[in-house]
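User: For a teaching handout, I'd like to show students what a predicted protein-ligand complex looks like in C-alpha cell form. I'll give you the sequence and the SMILES for zinc ion. Please answer with just the structure.
Assistant: Understood, here is the input followed by the structure.
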Amino acid sequence: MEHLRLNRAFPVVLAAALAGGPAAARAATDLGAQARQIARHQVEKFGKGYATRIDHNRHIVYVSALDDGHLRETIQLLSSFTDAYRRALPSTRPAWNVTVVLPTVDDYKKLPLPFPDCAGFYNPAGRRLVAIDRGRTLLHEFVHALHHADMAASRQVHPIWVSEGLATLFEASRITPSGLKPQLDRRLVTVQRAVRAKKAFPLKRLLTMGRSPFMTDAALAYAQARYVMYYLHDRGHLAGWYRRYKATFTHDPNGLKAFEAALVSRVFLIDPAWQKWVLTLRVPSSEYRTHEGRLGLRVQKVSQGVQVVGMVPGSAAKVAGRIRVGDLIEKFNNRVIRNTGDFVSAIRQAGAMQTVTIQVLRHGRRLAVIQPLGAPPAR
Ligand SMILES: [Zn+2]
C-alpha cells in the first residue's frame, strides 16, 4: 500500500541492522523501485480498468480489476494472513516482490492456466499469483508464494507433501493472535474414507513421495498431506517440526526424520495413531452447505429483460458500487440473461468469492461491469 511508504524508513533501517548493513538497506530500496516497475508493466499488460497498490513492507504488488472496496478487503486479508503465517511458521519474508493479480474472468481465461477450471495459480518463475477467487484458492496459492520465498531464503526445495500440505492446511484456517488455526474441512472425508477402506498411503510412503505419484492420486494425496500437517499442528509441533526440518534438511530432505523427532516416535508407530486420530474428527456441518455466490441485487423481470430494482445493504453489489438501480442486466460472464431464473442460476454457478463480468444497459449505453461476488452469510 502506497501510504506505507511514509513510515517505511524505520523497518528498512531495522532490517538492515539485522541483516548486516547498507547492502541490505539498498536491496530494500531497489525492491521498492522494482515494485513500481512491476506495477507499471502489469497495468500496461492488462490495460485500462486495472489499479495497482504496493505493500512495501510485505513486498506485495497488487494488480487488480476489483473495485476499491473489494481490493481494500483483499489487501487487508492477505496482509493479516502474511503476518499470521509468519507467526504460525518460522519463515523468512520474501526477498523479492510477490505480484498478486486479481483480473476479470475474461482476462483470466486468456492466460495459460496450469489446470483447466482452476480459479487461481502461483507461478514461481514469475513470482506471480493470479486468481479470480478471493477465498480458499487465493489463500492456497498465496501460501505457495510465501513458502517459495522461505525455501529460497534457506536454499532448499521441499517435497510436494510439504508444499501442498502447508497450502491445503492454511487455505482453510482462521487468523488468530498466535498465528493460523486450521479448520476441519471436506478433505477430511477423503482421508477418512481411505483409512476405513485401508487405502490410505502409508505415512512413510506419503512423506517420501515424488511429484508424479503424488499427482496420480491427487485428491487423496492432498487431503492426506493436509491431515498430516493438521496432526502436527494439533499436537503443538508444527512450528517445531518445520524449524528442525529446515535446520537438518541436508540429511533429511523429506522431513521424515524431523517428523519422527517432533512426535518422539517412529513412523510405523505414528501411522496407526494418526489413523485413529483421523477417525475421531468430524467435518463441521457448515462445510456441507453449498457456497453460493452472493451479489445482493434485487431484480425484477420487465419487458426488456431483468432490471435491478434495489440492493441489499452491505452486499457485494452495494460495496462495489458499480451496478446501479435501473440497470438492465443483459449478460453474466458472457451468458445471456433473459429472466430472473437465468440470473439466479448464473450467480449460483459462479460460486462464492469469484469476480464476474456483468453486461448492463444503462441509459441506452452498454457497459461491462466487473463485479466481485461475496459469500453467503454464515448461519
Ligand atoms: Zn497447491
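For the handout, you might add this sentence: The two ends are 33 Å apart (CA to CA).
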